Amino acid sequence: MGWTVIPFMAIVLIAVTPALSWRQYRIRRSIDLSVTNPLIPDNKLPTDLVPVKYALQLEIDADQLAFHGNVNITMACAKQTNQINLHAHNDLNVDEGNIEIVEYTAGDNGKANTLKIRRVDRVPKKPLLVIYFHDDLTVGTTYEARINFKGMIWENTEGLFQGKYKTHDGDQQEDHSYFASYFRPNHARRVFPCFDEPSYKVPFLVTIVRPKHLKTLFNTEVISSENLAQDKVADTFDTTSPISTFALGFVMSDLTEVVSDQDSEGATTKPIIRIWARRDFHDQVKDVKMKIQTVLDHLVKFWNVSFPLNKLDIVALPNFSSVKPADNWGLVVFRESDLQNGYYGIAQELVYQWLGTWISPHWWSDAHVNKAVAGFVAAATTIDIDNGLEFEGKWPMTILYSIYYEFSKRYPHSRITAIKQETTCSKTELVLRMLNLTLGADTFQKGMQKFIEHRECKTFVSNDIWEALTKQAHLDRKLCETATINEIADSWVTKDRIPMVTVHRDYQKNTATITQRVYLRERPHDVPEQDKMLWWIPLVVVQQDNLNFTNTSATKWMKKVKQVTLENLTNADNFIIINPEEIGPFPVNYDERNWNLLASYLLDEGGRSKIPVYTRAKLLHDAWNLAYAGHLSFATAFNMTLFMQFERNHLVWNPVFTLIDHIGRHIDMSAVHKKFEIYVRTLLTPLYEELAQNQYEGEEKWKTNLRSLAKTFLCRAGYKPCIEEAQKVFKKWMDSPEPDLGNPVANQYICPVFKSGTQDEWEFGLQRVINFPESRVRSERTYLLKTLAGCPVQASKINRLLNLTVLEDNGNFTDNDINLIFKMLSGGSSGYMALFDFLQKNWDAIKLRFKDREMLWNNLINSATGLFTTQEGYDMVSQLYVQRQGEFGTAQHIIEKSLKNIKEETKWSQENLPVIEKWLDNFLNQHKISDDRFIR
């Protein structure tokens, strides 16, 4: 059984295709760390002059897709200087010859003097405008820069952009266009010269000229409108509170206000909430105002501060190409689809109205903490409103498992900065959850309120949050006076690692020795300076004779020490659980006796029901991953799975599929694999058949998803009902008179047919790829090619595909196609062994084909040699290395890396396969299993 034919995450996407999950949404949140992180080392503007206020006039030229305007920037001189430095993007055309700098003197009733400018420079390759003077400016004096500018409007959402959409009225179709801004994080400089840094928060007085048939929404309300020539109108808006340049925003469109059932005449509740959308989308967002109000009520209660604006406009922008909403001050712009989901996405953006816009990070280095707080508060708000219905109970588990996986690698984030920022943010969010639980929700909330108090329209650094929490924790006596939240948070946030806690009980003395060390899942465990890494770890303990999972305060803190002792524990016949409900983001290992006590208790239905779902999932997840990492016997880990025969909660099952995939990947080449396959069938068959029998319309989404996942894995295991169903559906496509015009087969049926079906069925799929029409969506062809390569276990199918694409150099397949084939074949032993044999037998011909295609050659060597896990595999690759010494060319380092990795994997196999096989033999002897429902 090729467990890794298609990577696990691909399976999930195939089996479950919701419109937009909360997990997907949280990745797309407004503070885009991949954008803000590169700004951290940017040179800041000199602090000689600081802005006091802006007066901005802007006019859109819809016909020319251009804009022009002027800005008056009032500044205070704080230090002696002879120059003014402003941000201005290289694409922005500044009228340098007509810049005016006015000095307002203190005497003579504020007399204004125009200064003589020496020169104006645009700094090469930097978005800077520098204005030089003959004499120094005077400290303490106010100056005003008056600058005209113009620029082009683009389609991409950076600065000012144009969007288009269509509406339909019967047979009539009407074209519409709109103009909008997206200034986060530093795109205001694309539109007007400014101090484009988050720490400069000043008021804006803005006038925007629009075509008469369009309406402009801005951060604040319109205070006056003036009709101009050529059917144009100049709207002047109320002066904003002090805000950063990125919080400035407008939308100019013909969208209309959505009238909902909640609206009442003369309503004066603040803020006034308005929803804007195209007219034929009103029905889809008619409940959004209610959601907005509900979220606002909860956030006001959390922050203990009223919403800091009189109005809030929410815009559903058609064809909005940005994956992140534009959370302007008082004007939040969403993609239409984002407003059709639950509360989380809305809560996420509204949190930024308080923390992010009203109160802003002082510099981009604090953006990840801002995002983490917003994520945590949004999740807590969503759970508070409707028990987090849209999460299906998966928060925070989905984040947590990805953190465990990423930070236990030898090289986290694959050294990719964007991934590092996101994972660090996610870890910080989990640290906030840990603090909320261990300090208590009341103390945590009061600490956050203390942080936000008196900070309106100002900025913050990360330590401000931790200090506020420390003060409240000390006040409430939830933390000893010598400890600070700053220290605790710093020990977690600043490391690209997480700890593993190990518990060794002394059953005679009723004590336990607790140690901490770096958690490493990938081998070898050779991370530099790992012995020096220590964390502040809260030890929350639950004992079998007092199963209280509501008390989340720490029995003891590990204060960056390697070892502590817990005393007065339960007797030797009872288990203990450390870190229940995943209070902290760290796995926990126990001595074998405690693990076995837990395994026995979970097998009993009465006992199992007393252990909450998150804790059951944690115990299972920790046991398997610790075994995989070499910290726990696989016999013990397998014992912890026995209760899954009776488990029906999807949250406990979710990690199981990943674990099956990971272990299956490792033992795919071994003789143990067949026994593991039967064991997996034993776990999954009753689950799937029970879910299939009890299927009903309108059931919870998690049941549908769990059934789909179980079915997908059983299909891969050769479950006959699944294969027969897939072949029946597939035959309709084969019998179609014009099969190239479209694919009537759902994706879930294709892989089972290509794996367990006939050569003719697979060949039919191959011809569909070859004859794929240009008019169809290319992603359908890509999926078909992935399954053609990744699903079969028969060497004949794989060789047919390789001969066609590599040796025959068929013109229907691009180099990208061939790379994709190599990648998919590396998913399971059938694939990479067939690829290795193909390479060995056709070495000279392949070398000739790939003579000038180094990327293909390198990827081939990597996919064909890098995945073996046994001594037999090592010997095969080693023999090839010796035979072809000096012929690997650019792939020389790849084959050497493969041999090194295989040697490490071989050690793993030698240590663990005998243990796994012995446990499986014992299990299969006790469970007489019929294979009648599976293809042999």
Automatic annotation (TrEMBL):
Pfam family, one: ERAP1_C
Cofactor detail note: Binds 1 zinc ion per subunit.
Gene Ontology annotations of biological process type: proteolysis
Gene3D superfamilies: 1.25.50.20, 2.60.40.1910, Neutral Protease Domain 2, tricorn interacting facor f3 domain
Topological relation to the membrane, as annotated: Lipid-anchor; GPI-anchor
Record GO terms (molecular function): aminopeptidase activity; metallopeptidase activity; zinc ion binding
Domain spans labelled Peptidase M1 membrane alanine aminopeptidase: 294-492
InterPro entries: Aminopeptidase_N-like_N, Aminopeptidase_N-like_N_sf, ERAP1-like_C_dom, M1_APN-typ, Peptidase_M1, Peptidase_M1_aminopeptidases, Peptidase_M1_dom, Peptidase_M4/M1_CTD_sf
Cofactor annotation: Zn(2+)
Residues spanning the signal sequence: 1-21
Positions of the ERAP1-like C-terminal domain: 575-903
First-listed, main subcellular location of the protein, grouped into a coarse class: membrane
Subcellular location: Cell membrane
PANTHER family, sorted: FI02158P, PROTEASE M1 ZINC METALLOPROTEASE
CDD domains in the cross-refs: M1_APN-Q_like (cd09601)
Active site location: E349
Name the UniProt record assigns to this protein: Aminopeptidase
Keyword Iron-sulfur assigned: no
The enzyme's E.C. designation: 3.4.11.-
